[in-house]
Amino acid sequence: MNETLPKPLKLKSKKLIGSLFENGSSVKAFPLLLVYKNVTEIDVAFQVGFSVSKRNFKHAVDRNRIKRLLREYFRKNKYILSKENNQFLFMFIFIGKTMPTYEDVSKAMDKIIRKFEQQLQQNQKS
After folding, report:
1. 36 within 8 A of 116, measured Cβ to Cβ
2. Helix H or strand E segment including 29
3. pTM
4. Tens digit of pLDDT for each residue in 22-66?
């Protein structure tokens, strides 16, 4: 499988980001928060963005390092979320206060993706 994260999969539109935070749902698995929304306006299976709080990490190099770790894990495991039949917008927000390792990120991303899939199944049942 192709393990790249091309430009069409990146969430860049201010309009889409605004609607994601206004009308989206969220799943929390410390140290990550996933905000997602089911949409029809995009041409791909999903678009994803990553964010780290400036309040918790004052230095840009630290924020960029965390975002790089999140993107790397997501890039290698994006097939998990692309198997859904719906189109989604995702925003992964790192809410922890300490610098994570790749292992920490992988455990947190696995946990939050499992919670997301469980929440989708519950929403489909009801």
Report:
1. yes
2. strand 25-29
3. 0.94
4. 999 999 999 999 999 999 988 999 999 999 999 999 999 999 999
